[in-house]
Amino acid sequence: MSKPALISVDWGTTSLRCALVAADGAILARSADGPGINPPPAEGFASTLTTAIAPWRYQHASLPILMSGMIGSRQGWAEVPYLPCPANAAALAEHLHRLDAGDLGDVFIVPGLAMLGTEQPPEVMRGEETQIIGALAKTTHAKGAAAQLFVLPGTHSKWATVTGTEITSFATYMTGDVFAALRHHTILGRLMPDAATSDDAAAFAQGVSAGAADGPPGALLNRLFATRTLGLFERLPTAGLASYLSGLLIGAEIAAATALVKPEVITIIGNAELSQRYRAAADQLGLPTTIAPADCAVRGHCIIARAAGLLKEPS
Amino acid sequence: MSKPALISVDWGTTSLRCALVAADGAILARSADGPGINPPPAEGFASTLTTAIAPWRYQHASLPILMSGMIGSRQGWAEVPYLPCPANAAALAEHLHRLDAGDLGDVFIVPGLAMLGTEQPPEVMRGEETQIIGALAKTTHAKGAAAQLFVLPGTHSKWATVTGTEITSFATYMTGDVFAALRHHTILGRLMPDAATSDDAAAFAQGVSAGAADGPPGALLNRLFATRTLGLFERLPTAGLASYLSGLLIGAEIAAATALVKPEVITIIGNAELSQRYRAAADQLGLPTTIAPADCAVRGHCIIARAAGLLKEPS
Q1: Which residue of A has its CA nearest to B116?
Q2: What's the first-to-final CA gap in chain B, in angstroms?
Q3: Per-residue pLDDT tens digits for B57-71
Q4: Is A216 within 8 Å of B218 when comparing Cβ atoms?
Q5: How far is the alpha carbon of B136 from chain A, nearest alpha carbon, in Å?
Q6: What is the pLDDT of residue B195?
Q7: A16 or B119, which is more confident?
């Protein structure tokens, strides 16, 4: 069995995930999910982390700990300045933020990325940069190859363009957050059954078509209303309306994120259910996808730790 | 003083407004605002209306009562079938729905309008058709003149095209409903002060520009996020973020509703505050506006009642 070489900590808004990792990237052990940073854990961040990795105590005495995610935000353990985008693993490694963490030893936070040009509103990410670096390791990126497109779907979906091994730009789409607000706090939810609705693939596909159709940005404010009228006039079953709305938003998101450049392939980084949903929508729009392996964050931590000289090359 | 000739009843989701009207359209008296149809008044619709117009009892014994709005919906007093659009005042008059309302006498509901072609999702309105007919009476519409554009801003804004005196098409934009859901139920509200914020005209204008800029529909899901990042990076004061979001949505709505045909003038029908907000945004986008007089619903009821032969021409 490989020797432990690193503790990988993915600490976001809603959960803490730790893994004990070998120098070759093999995951030797995982912690149970712990509390996210919002609300901040009552016992403090250091104590929460100590508890989470306690089972490996005898193994990690001298192991570096690499963290990424909202733990590096203003509401987290320490606010780590964003690194300007474009950036690659080497740049992230160079700007690791070292914490004074007492007994925990060498604890580092990977900085998030920001695009702060004044011609556009700011864009920021924390945690996704590490997952993208991790996913990149498993994708082919010949020198001089075309830019690759990555999506991390969710509450605030991130779409990132990668050239070579460098994250060159990204954009945030509030798709998941908007879906939940529309479903639960506008007229659109009124016709939807309260119970968790099973997916209606046909309604979802109909939504994708409607959302991805050409039009100006404000057309979305009009298209959303169809979720109500299609239900009112029984053109869609009420049990399918949530799927229609989901398809409408995801279709609009994917079409917008790929409007300027048709990607050769879109790499999807996310949980299985959401990844499949994005893949289905992209398929329908004629966009090829690949689904990234699980544990992109752990892979990213390994790559960044190695670039920082914190890991010995596997022997 | 003119003689009472009609009772005008504008009965929507949230309020009941009655007016005692002369044959020439002069408003002789108004009721205090009564309860809307959602939730339905406990004492029933007939009883609620009887109470609202009781002060005029001695005057209205034989007066026709014309109602419009959600009172004609499935959740209202009686579900009145939608009239297909295009339609004018004569068509609305021809399809008045007569209620069996006992002591109240001749009570009619103006039908709403629907666009039910199968190539697009259904569009519906109830009440706005009457306001547009009322506003039309005060706008010039020379025969053969270009189509006119009307907007009724609100929770679900309606944009209607009128050719001559006929409402030829319309579309619904969920702007107000979406604004409230985003502000109160997504991350965008987190940086906004809780207290009702005074309008920030500069932030509103910046939002209008961002919302009206070219792009695909899904770009809106990305642009919304700027409401957060502009606040985070202190490019906008937090007190201005709600105005920015409002401008973003209204700018997107106006740009989309006028994307195909630049109107000579947009007639705005709504309360003073919202009408001014839409006028400011349209001004900024180079679109001339006129604000309809108050009481468009009452005016519309008079025109439809006259077309139905329920009103004597003013002597």
Answers
A1: A233
A2: 13
A3: 777 678 999 999 999
A4: no
A5: 24
A6: 66
A7: A16
| Complex ipTM | 0.94
Determine if residue A132 is left, alpha or beta; phi over 0 gives left, psi from -120 to 50 gives alpha, anything else beta.
alpha
What letter does residue A275 receive in the DSSP assignment? H
Tokens of B313: 């021409």
* CA A219 vs CA A241, B81, B205, B243: distances in Å: 19, 27, 20, 21
Q: Residue B210 in contact with residue B229, Cβ under 8 Å?
A: no
pLDDT of residue B296: 96
Tell me how far apart the alpha carbons of residues A199 and A208 are, in angstroms, rounded to a whole number: 14
Which of B253-267 are b and which e, b meaning 16 or more Cβ less than 10 Å from the residue's Cβ? bbbbbbeeeebebbb
pLDDT in tens, A257-298: 999 888 899 999 999 999 999 999 999 999 999 999 989 999
- Residues of chain A with Cβ-Cβ distance to B215 below 8 Å are 216-217, 256, 259
Q: In one letter, which amino acid is B222?
A: N
Task: Choose among B124, B177, B249: nearest Cβ to A229.
Answer: B124
H helices present in chain A, as ranges: 45-52, 57-60, 89-94, 128-136, 175-185, 201-212, 219-223, 226-232, 241-257, 272-284, 296-307
Average pLDDT over residues A33-45: 93
Q: How many Å lie between the alpha carbon of A226 and the closest alpha carbon of chain B?
A: 6
Indicate whether B109 pLDDT > 70: yes
Under the banding of pLDDT at 50, 70 and 90, the label for residue A58 is confident
**Per-residue model confidence (pLDDT) at position B95:** 98
Among the partner-chain residues A171, A177, A255, the one whose CB lies closest to the CB of B216 is: A255
Tokens describing residue A123: 């864009």
**Phi and psi (nearest 5°) for B186?**
-135, 180
Q: Are A280 and A206 in contact (CB under 8 A)?
A: no
Integer Cα distance of A99 and A130 in angstroms: 18
